Amino acid sequence: MPAFGAHVWANYDAGPLDARYETAWAGMSEIERWVTGLTETVGPSPPLAPGVLGQIGLALLLASYRHPALTERPGR
Predict the structure, then answer these.
(1) What's the CA gap between 44 and 59, in Å, rounded?
(2) pTM above the 0.90 mark?
(3) What is the Cα–Cα distance from 43 to 57, expressed in whole angstroms?
(4) Quick check: 18 and 43 in contact, CB under 8 A?
(5) What is the CB-side half-sphere exposure of residue 37 using CA atoms within 13 A?
(6) 31-67 burial by CB neighbour count: b if 16+ within 10 A, else e?
(7) DSSP state, 19?
(8) Helix (H) or strand (E) holding 70
(9) Distance in angstroms (rounded) separating the CA atoms of residues 11 and 28
(10) pLDDT tier, 74 (very low <50, low <70, confident <90, very high otherwise)
């Protein structure tokens, strides 16, 4: 599981244990629970970790997209 997904999943699992959401969690819809886990308003994950991992992934994707070493034909 990607690191970002693991953070969101951990946040979702921690919802009923969070003091701010322990009484409201049972009454929330599934979508509200997942959005709460995704926006990191609940759970133990550091707020910047998923964003930084996403930026690193995007930077690696852009760095390798049409890179000359990956697109040159052999023998040229």
Answers:
(1) 26
(2) no
(3) 23
(4) yes
(5) 22
(6) eebbebbeebebbebeeeebeeeeeeeeeeeeeeeee
(7) T
(8) helix 68-71
(9) 15
(10) low
Of 76, 50, 6, 4, which is closest to residue 14 (Cα–Cα)? 6
The pLDDT of residue 75: 62
Q: pLDDT, tens digit, for every residue of 9-66? A: 888 888 888 888 888 889 999 999 988 888 878 876 566 667 788 899 999 998 888 7
pLDDT at 44: 63
DSSP structure string for 31-59: HHHHHHHHTTSSSSS-TTHHHHHHHHHHH
Q: Tell me which amino acid residue 40 is.
A: E
